[in-house]
Write a structure and sequence with these properties.
By secondary structure, this protein is of the alpha+beta class. It has 5 helices and 22 strands. The chain has 3 domains: 109 residues, Sandwich (Immunoglobulin-like); 83 residues, Immunoglobulin-like (Sandwich); 116 residues, Collagenase (Catalytic Domain) (3-Layer(aba) Sandwich), CATH 3.40.390. A hairpin with a 2-residue loop joins strand 3 and strand 4.
Length: 378
Amino acid sequence: MRMSVRAAIVLVAATLAASLLVTPATAAGEVITPGTPTITGTVQYEKTLTAVPGTWTPADVTFSYQWFRDGTAVGSDSPVNVTRKLASTNDIGTVYAVRVTATKDGSEPVAATSAPTRTVAKATMDNATRPTISGTPKYGSRLTGSSGTWSRKVDSFEYRWLRNDKPISGATGRHYTVAPSDVGAKIRFRVKAKRAGFSTETARSTAVTGQHVRGVRKVVTYRVITRGSISASLSTFKQQAQETYDDPRGWRAMGVKFKRVSKGGDFTLVLSQASKVPSFSSGCSSTYSCRVGRYVIINQTRWLKATPAWNAKGGSSRNYRHMVVNHETGHWFGKGHASCGGSGQLAPVMQQQSKGLAGCKINPWPKKSERHAPRYGW
């Protein structure tokens, strides 16, 4: 095993010091033959090292001990210094050696130095009881994480909420509000415990599963068709419409689950060429989307380009698609148009946001006050 540069320096320095004493004297006393000193114990902060002198002759010599940290003497050379407590954080990252000096009346003293230890490591602490999560993990609800208990006093904690074991951006406090992406995902609370001189230790809570605001009260089926010439991706239309229906911010919060079927269904979702929208009813316009009876009709031009009023407010294409599917499906639920509740407020999803905001802010999702279904009496 290769010795580190620091360990080699310690060994050379200590050996040179010992060489001044190791040569037996020519005095009348017995010649002292040195043993091989070693160090036992855990080389870790807050642990204790013990010097073991080895076997010397004669056996009745008296020992004294001088400890070296990175080649520099620490403490005194004394018979009582057989142990060394690694009590300072300055010990971390250093190496230790011990010089043992044997004396006997009438004999010259002799010294020998141990090999250096490995580098002193940080101490460790244990997580006695793992962190926990309190609160109901429903979308929009607030969760609180506990730190758990630890075997040593902790200086500070670092918190992080995890979604499917990956860090949630910005979620670094003890409290967390369940987000749309958490629904169906595993949520955990991770704690890192820190203490001076100790390794940072990590513990995680048991996972909880994110839930919708309400369980399924009603399954609504729908099928998808097209009318006219379609240039938009039909597979994208199907996928994104289902994402809208599954989102915990949408009509799913009423307890309704939407299931796409190949035929039949409770309603029909239509991706229609703009000029074909009026073919469903004279009340429909080629400019906007519409709902007629069981048909929820999405105007292809609006699907692809949104509307000038929406774009002027900086609305994204994806949020427009959420909004128009929610708005027209809301009509199928029996909901009429709503008005802006006041300047600066979020627009109701049943407001005609395609035409203008009237002082409200863009909002692609039903507001809490809109999430009821008079058709089914839920």
